[in-house]
Amino acid sequence: MRIIIYTGKGGVGKTSMAAATAMNIASQGKRVLIMSTDQAHSLGDSFDMELTREPIQITDNLFGLEIDTVYESEKSWGNLKGYFKSLLSLNGDGGIEVEELLVFPGLEELFSMFKILEIYEKNEFDTLIVDCAPTGETLSLLKYPERLSGFIQKVLPVKRKGVKAVGPVIEKAMKIPMPGEEVFDDFEYLMARMEKLQNLMLDKDIVSLRVVTTPEQIVLSEAKRNFTCLYLYNYNVDAVIVNRIYPKDAVEGYFSKWIEMQERSLNEISESFSEVPCFYVELQKNELRMLPVLEKVGKQIYGNQNPNEILFKKDIYSINRENKCLRVYLPFADKSELKLEQTKEELVIGLKNEIRRFIMPKEFYGSDISGAKYDQGYLNIYF
Question: Using 50, 70 and 90 to split pLDDT, how confident is the model at 63?
Fold first, then answer.
């Protein structure tokens, strides 16, 4: 099963590009499911039909769904939600305020990702197309499992032993309910699901991300930052789709300046993403909605290229044992925003407000960093 995820700044046409791609792949005879993780769903509007949280047939071989984050949250929380609710409502009536407090930042995105894993494990489709929320939310969705699973792995065993030993005493003295075995079981289940999810998302033979942008400088800058952060977290970006290119004969006269700005942006896209396949989509005469339009545009985007294939794959990390160097591919990174730290077992790379922790490669375990250099898109770390 293939999983293709569309991401980008809000308003660039991710939903339309995802829908057109789904139509293209379904026309090849593949059984395709397209789903939206954006809480402000517009996927159903693209197909001019109402989608629900369960797959609905759109046309031959193509099915669609829009994730219900409330339903997915209830399904995934299990005993954890009940326990946290009992803590938060100790001195209150457990009203609507408590329910609102239980919506922790990032959890809804995480539960959306669990839906991706659930669909993959059922294996009822050949291809899953995911229309993601705008860039910031998508990055949060992709990095959350790694962060939380590491925390749970370190803390859970200690807490479980402690509750067994002194839990009854604390509960009686402090009048605070201690978590039962079922709560810890749910934590362990959550951790196991996140580990599976992380392994799936990092499998470059299954999962591809495609960045959608438009030829405008502000949007392009955001796309380049998005591209860099996705590589920081070792996800495979296999294509860039440039949407809403103005035909020259459509912006003559008063709007002629737009062509000049667009040409500069298109040249920058060509230079910046030279290694990655780029696909260009002209601004259409009609809205990108309804099946005939989406089918037509799906063919225009890719031409003779099969969008179901892995269009590009690159190793993010490489080790040069001779020079004692670890190379990390971070295109478009600003050297002044890069930070590098080392602990006994971990290497920490910071890029602006993004942080990634790596287990030290066994080749360099016990060695100290002797220097680092950012050169031609690669961060070279020497030991």
Answer: very high
Query: Using only C-alpha atoms, what is the Rg of the chain?
Result: 24
- Domain check: are 47 and 119 in the same one? yes
Q: Answer whether residue 64 shows pLDDT above 70.
A: yes
Could you report the per-residue pLDDT of 192-231, keeping only the tens digit for each? 788 888 889 999 999 999 999 999 999 999 999 889 888 8
CA 27 → CA 6, 13, 78, 257, 296, distances in Å? 19, 21, 40, 39, 11
DSSP-assigned beta bridge partners for residue 210? 6, 239
- For 190, the token pair is 């959550």
Lowest mean pLDDT among 59-73, 85-99, 177-191: 85-99
The span from the CA of 151 to the CA of 328, in Å, is: 24
What value does the mean pLDDT take over residues 148-158? 57
Strand spans (E) along the chain: 2-8, 32-36, 56-59, 62-66, 127-131, 207-213, 237-245, 278-282, 317-320, 325-329, 338-342, 346-351, 354-359, 371-375, 378-382
The region that residue 13 occupies, defined by phi over 0 for left and psi between -120 and 50 for alpha, beta otherwise, is left
Look at the chain and count its residues.
383
Q: Is residue 307 assigned to a domain?
A: no
pLDDT at 178: 55
Tell me how many degrees the CA angle 359-361-366 measures, rounded to the nearest 5. Answer: 90
Phi/psi of residue 194, nearest 5 degrees: -70, -35
With CA atoms as reference, report the closest residue to 113 among 77, 142, 137: 142
Q: CA torsion, points 226, 229, 209, 281, in degrees to nearest 10?
A: 20
pLDDT band at 175 (very low <50, low <70, confident <90, very high): very low
From the list 115, 113, 306, 313, the residue with the least C-alpha distance to 208 is: 313
Exposed, middle or buried by CB within 10 Å (0-12, 13-18, 19+), for 118? middle
User: Domain range for residue 86?
Assistant: 81-103+143-189
Are 361 and 332 in the same domain? yes
54 & 85 share domain:
no
The rounded distance, in Å, linking the Cα atoms of 321 and 333 is 25
Alpha carbons 340 and 291: distance in angstroms, whole number: 49
The reply to whether 195 falls in a domain is: no
**Confidence (pLDDT) at 278:** 96
